[in-house]
Amino acid sequence: MSVIGVLLVRYRWILILPLLIYLFIFFITPLSRDIIVSLWDPEFTLKHYIHFFTEPVYVMVIMNSFKIAAMVTLFSLLLGYPYAYLLSGVSDNTASKLLVFVILPFWVSLLVRNYSWMVLLGRHGVFNMILMNLGLVSRPVKFLYSTTGVNIGMVHIMLPYMILSLFAVMKGIDRNLLKAAQNLGANRFQTFLRVFLPLSLPGIAGGCLIVFIMAIGFFITPALLGGAKDAMIAQLIEQNVSLMLNWGFAFAASFVLLFLTIIILMIYNRFLGLDRLMGGSEK
Amino acid sequence: MNSADSKSFASKTDWASLLLYVACGLIAFYMILPILIVFPMSFSSAEFLTFPPPGFSLKWFQRYFSDSSWTQPTYISFQIAIMTMVLSTILGTLAAMALVRSRFWGKAAANSLILAPMIIPVIVISIALYGFFAKIGLIGTRAGLVFGHTMVCVPFVVITVSASLKGFDETLEMAAMICGATRLKAFMKITFPIIRPGMISGALFAFIISFDEIVISMFLCGIETRTLPLKMWEGIRMEISPVIAAVSTLLICLSAVLLIFLEIIRRRTQSTISG
Predict the structure, then answer these.
(1) Fewer C-beta neighbours within 10 Å, C or N terminus of chain A?
(2) Are A15 and B97 inside 8 Å of each other by CB?
(3) ipTM of this complex > 0.90?
(4) Per the structure, how many domains does chain B have?
(5) What is the pTM of this model?
């Protein structure tokens, strides 16, 4: 073996360096710079953070972000659970057909999906046209620019994540356990409630976590489908940067958001283990 | 015995299964509806969006292809997506090989760092890069956009390549070298074919994520540069013109093509492994 060959085997970890250097320059450095800017103005101060948590408008935005993220998580679970349940119970062939409805939207541009909901939900949109033509309503229903609109759009985007997390766990549930429960006299409802549901809990936890984390930092959908009342933290950050040029405050707000994300992840890691979530790329 | 069993099972639970099927049908409809609706809208002859469309027309596609304020951003988006795909695939594949096939101090931390941009809200990354790039003069440049997009694309390459490396028996490479292959040859003949499907799916992920990326682009594009999603974003906020429906139709077709491509790779990999 050549010298270079030996070195390559011995020091294979070197291969990770290009990516780590890249991340150091474009990830760690900018984020560290942010912390400094958010804390020094022009000398050490916590005013941006205090401002963020005391100004009533901002407190409302934080509360609203939590509320919307929680609603989206709940609705995604309610819709995702039956679908994943069906997926896990059918043959592989049928499952791969049913998965098309989950995977295809996942691959379609986020902007396209939001735009479609605007077309569907708008004042003169498809739903209102159908409802009015059928004579069910006399005036257009306000779906768009409302919390309803944000929920419909965001659940649509989050549902694939929820279904895939649930499906991954449900697929691993030993079906013999269900048969055993039924042989022991449980009816189908009891079997589900006492055996299947508890076994699927890791999937529920994982799905809810990933949906909640993604939802709380969401920007595009609330901006396009929501009204002024539905503003979330990300929009607040964007406005402070692009309209008010209030960097210190925007960075402070983005750190609060980052911090929230990390806390939720740590709680999850504590109870369930993070490697389950990361596609298992760590052994 | 067996058939009688399943028969009584079926008759007892029919209504519950029926309810499940109906619910799942509605969920599938909810998932697919926004994708289907843009097709009739984009072929509409109306001057503004109405449903049902009054007639068939290709004028919105013509308008898209003849308007440089649409074709130029499309071209830029393709350029950036391809460059991002190449950079992410190189960085991600090398890192995955180190992560799966060697042990080193701080490996778990490095792994978390690499995957972090996938979980962290993209707005946080965007404004951090915006502030940083404004200082070093990368706003509005293609390089800046590629560096920004790569961060959110790399984790997907690392995950797909790691997955394909996991089942790989390293002694195969050793065996090739014992049989006289050089290190490079052993890599090209043994390792590369095994990680290739993972690299290709990772690369496709990187391409489509970069091509659709909007939030990072919104901050890093500056005043003059426009990517396709950014142009759409501005178009949607001003007026919901049917040109956007035409662009959406094209984007859905692009996604479908990439997805089919990915499925072909997956099937081919499976058949080589099992047969």
Answers:
(1) C
(2) yes
(3) no
(4) 1
(5) 0.89
